[in-house]
Amino acid sequence: MTVLEDTDRFGLAPDGSAVRAVEISGGPVTARVMTWGASLIDLRMDGVAHPLVLGSRDFAAYLGPMRHFGAIVGPVANRIAGGRMSVEGREFALDRNELKRTTLHGGSAAFSRRNWTLRAADISSITFGLHHTHGTGGFPGELDVAARYSLDVTGALTIEITGRTDRPAMLGPAFHGYWSLDGGSDLSGHRLTIDADDYLTVDDEKTPSGSPVAVAGSGFDYRHPRRPDAALDHNFCLARTQGQMRRAATLDAGGLRLTIETTEVGLQVYSGGGLATAPATGLGGRPYGANAGIAFEPQFWPDSPNRPDFPSPVLRPGDTYRQVSRFAVTRS
Fold first, then answer.
1. β-bridge pairing 233-237 and 266-270
2. According to the model, what pLDDT value does residue 2 have?
3. Which domain holds residue 149?
4. Residue 109 in domain
5. 3-state class of 111 per DSSP?
6. DSSP 3-state helix, strand, coil percentages of the chain (rounded to 5)?
7. Which of 8, 89, 229, 317 has the fewest CB atoms found within 10 Å of its own CB?
8. Is residue 84 in a domain?
């Protein structure tokens, strides 16, 4: 059933189009999502007094310090070194939107900075669509992308992202939501487990500095629960082949557990060390500071368009990109 008229006007996009928000529910969980960036802006669980994700009631915050909060980022998530890439022998210069050195989350005209079309919605699911024109931000391909949020009867949130192209392109988006399970001002009460044996070291520009390295014996071994490091912003290598659903991580705090499963080959984990949203306020009525939440971003490995030894995000005409990630909050 399609119920497109049951929306709230949440804001006005820079191009003058209306930004709409829709609430969906399933089991004990309610989520609110908006067309801008196809973003999750709130998530609540019955019997829990605080929100479980970082967000804002003020749309202006999403045009400033909260520009990636809860959004679908892309066409290629994370960083592309030098703002350049090659697709089947053709070189492309991209929008270098991070210190004029790297391309971060698709550049300044990326998925997260666009007002998506609301295609369909019912009580427990919603689908957004976006057409990304060839050459936008330097990325090739007429990309048609859809993002579907759904809540099942247990309250688990599933995010499915699909895409097609008219010519060889790179497509590797990610959901960029921040989580906080205990409602605290930082992550000190949280314990993190990551189901990965390897991770990627990074250089001064936070792009991969080499091949995967074993987490064993390093400060990045989260195979057993521990408090997230305040400076964590790294990719953990889950697999080399996309498509199989697997557990990627768990997060525990405040008597709740978040379990993350995904079909993606990597999980970027960012503990929010650089968060500083003031004067914009969050859902609790105060600005978010450093380590106020932790982002789990299922995706291809960073800088994969430039690394033939990494899993490739190349998408060709006739093929369909598909990513599925599941975020389940339960009482621990």
1. antiparallel
2. 41
3. 8-331
4. yes
5. helix
6. 5, 40, 50
7. 89
8. yes
What is the rounded CA–CA span in Å between residue 321 and residue 313? 9
Has residue 4 got a pLDDT over 70? no
Q: For residue 146, what are its two tokens?
A: 């859809």
Token pair for residue 299?
């995706």
**CATH number, domain containing residue 195:** 2.70.98.10
CB distance 196 to 237 below 8 Å: yes
Terminal alpha carbon distance of the chain? 35
In a domain, 3, yes or no: no
Q: Is 291 exposed, middle or buried (0-12, 13-18, 19+ CB in 10 A)?
A: buried
DSSP class per residue in 242-284: S---EEEEEEEETTEEEEEEESSSEEEEE--TT---TTS--TT
Residue-wise pLDDT tens digits, 233-273: 999 999 998 899 999 999 999 999 999 999 999 999 999 99
Q: How many CA atoms lie within 13 A of 242 on its CB side?
A: 21
Q: How many domains does the chain have?
A: 1
192 occurs within a structural domain: yes
Q: Please give the structure tokens belonging to residue 126.
A: 């919603």
Rounded to a whole number of angstroms, the CA Rg of the chain reads: 18
Tell me what the mean pLDDT of segment 175-187 comes to: 97
**pLDDT tens digit string along 83-93?**
999 999 999 99
State the virtual CA torsion across 77, 79, 82, 88 in degrees, nearest 10: -40
